[in-house]
Amino acid sequence: MTPRWMLFVDGENLTLRAQALVASMAKFSLPPGPLYREDVFVWLPRTACEHGAADLSIFHDVHLGGPPLRSIYYTSLVGDEETLQKVRTDLWTLEFQPEVFKKTARDQKAKGVDISLTKDMLSHAFLDNYDIAVLVAGDGDYVPLVQEIKRLGKRVHLCFFAGQGLNPNLKLAADHFADLTQDFMQHWILDLQARKA
Questions:
Q1: How is residue 33 annotated by DSSP?
Q2: Antiparallel, parallel or unpaired: β 5-10 and 70-77
Q3: Among residues 125, 111, 79, 117, which one has the least CA distance to residue 96?
Q4: Where residue 46 falls among pLDDT bands split at 50, 70, 90?
Q5: How many CB atoms lie within 10 A of CB 173?
Q6: What is the domain-level CATH number for residue 53?
Q7: pLDDT value at residue 1
């Protein structure tokens, strides 16, 4: 039987670490557009993903079969309601359920991201809506969440950049870990080369 799975993305954490990764490699810069907004969200180019932007089957170590039942992207930004709505629309276009929170300062981390992700992941587990939670995050604050999800009889697959802000205790708490570094860099490089061709 194909496992039922849901995707939970701490987009704020993912974006900041992706920016640091790209800066450290110095091979290219992320172009603003429908897949990237500085400090707010980042995802892989559609050309790298045949089954929709939220399908993690492109990552070698995550073998889950079909698409996720639900894909939720959590992030925050400084801006007016129109700006927040634009980000929600961009994420919805990428086939995510957008959870976008307003913050007052650019360098401030919005607590709404962590709290909302934790609430959703726990409630869906408690309601038996999935067998596997795929968590895209690197923050050690999620360790108790992962332990509780496992206590409820669910599996947790963690995906993040191994060398960019991944808490080692979070990696050890998960049932499975997939390093996104190579795939993220390779697919962005291929997409940027295709744009130039």
A1: B
A2: parallel
A3: 117
A4: low
A5: 21
A6: 3.40.50.1010
A7: 73
